[in-house]
What does this fold into?
Amino acid sequence: MKLSPATERYILHWGEMGTRWGVNRSVAQVHALLYLSPKPIPADEIAETLSMARSNVSTSLKELQGWGLVQMTHALGDRRDHFVSKKDLWDVLMIIVEERKRREIDPTVTMLRECVAEAEHDREIDPEVKKRIQTTLEFVESMTGWYDQVKRIPKPTLLALVKLGDKITRFIRR
It folds into this structure.
């Protein structure tokens, strides 16, 4: 598969952005290639196109499948597994946010609840420290509650809200 200069630049940049977001560069590049591709691609072709080791591609595909961003599919007359990425960027965003919440925020909420419970019985802890831990827990729970509400809003409604932008703020101020 020959990449155009713009496609190559997109994939390289997506890999760079992935590292800034805490995602392995190879994983991000494989995702970018599959997102841009108009058809499913077998792993060996991904490896060749991106000049990556086949094992690196395999590991990246497993991670992307674990996130629910990539699925395996098959092509008639070809025994190899082919891979395809979700194409709807809103779906991609929501999957990433949900996975990050599950992997990062949910354990933090659990830890904060444990810290609040521990601090409740700790006579040595400074009251200001106890209050800050409690405030952190309340803030994170508030944000996750807001997220849970937002994710239940139908996609067309959410997209309309995004397009409204700061018009919502002006409306609320009235």
In short: The CA atoms of residues 65 and 171 lie 42 Å apart. The chain has two domains: 5-85, 89-173. Residues 89-173 form one domain.
